[in-house]
Design brief:
It comes from Flavivirga rizhaonensis. The protein is α+β, with helices and mostly antiparallel strands. Helix content is 41%, strand content 24%.
């Protein structure tokens, strides 16, 4: 992430809460506290009214905001519920992407709306699944589906207990009660296969483009199993 993008993201983060600590900013962007102080100073010199309280954190002076988006309290609450569910689904990349967009949305809420959101965040939680299989590939796979880019994966087959290097053309993803599953055309086997994301040990985006299958849909895909049963 370049510095301009980071500084813009810090500004959005500052508007997502009443007070944001330097450590929160440093942890999110994996930078030093010294870098945080320098970035905050850059924003202040650019005219952004950022205040600070020793031992507490930074805040945006009331009256300053980015161009607002229209969002109701009910919509904000729905996002909080979604955040709790997503944080419990096992894929780290999806959690990271959703948290990023949620911070942007929180940044345009009014003060009392931020207070209400904070109340709800501490009062709602999904059921905790101790056996959820963790992965970190969903974000890249989604991008591959929309841009029809072939992926190269190292896959661990539990059934044969072997590692294979494969090129796949992602067609869709779905979530079971424990893990994310990618449906893809496997070039190695020359057929459509399912791959559990937690069993993908390594993944790379290639420069190859595959033909988008216009007639593929998850509804049609799963209906085949229903008809055969």
């Amino acid at each position: 992430m370049n510095r301009l993008t980071r500084i813009t993201s810090i500004l959005i983060q500052l508007q997502s809460k009443k007070v944001v600590t330097a450590k929160e900013i440093a942890d999110r962007f994996e930078i030093s506290l010294r870098t945080v102080y320098r970035d905050i100073k850059t924003l202040q010199e650019a005219g952004v009214p950022i205040g600070s309280e020793n031992g507490i954190g930074y805040f945006i002076v009331d009256g300053y905001s980015l161009p607002p988006i229209m969002i109701t309290e009910e919509e904000a609450n729905a996002l909080i519920v979604s955040e709790k569910l997503i944080s419990n689904q096992g894929d780290k990349s999806l959690t990271k992407d959703f948290n990023s967009v949620l911070i942007k949305i929180k940044s345009v809420l009014r003060s009392h709306e931020k207070e209400n959101v904070a109340k709800l965040e501490s009062r709602i939680t999904p059921s905790y699944k101790k056996d959820t299989f963790e992965s970190n590939w969903l974000s890249l796979i989604q991008k591959s589906i929309t841009n029809t880019i072939v992926l190269e994966i190292v896959y661990h087959s539990i059934y044969k207990d072997e590692l294979t290097l494969r090129e796949v053309e992602p067609l869709g993803v779905y979530y079971t009660d424990k893990a994310w599953i990618m449906i893809a055309h496997c070039k190695l086997r020359n057929e459509t296969r399912e791959f559990r994301l937690d069993r993908i040990l390594k993944i790379n985006s290639t420069l190859q483009i595959f033909d988008y299958q216009q007639d593929f849909s998850l509804l049609k895909y799963f209906s085949r199993f229903t008809e055969s049963s």
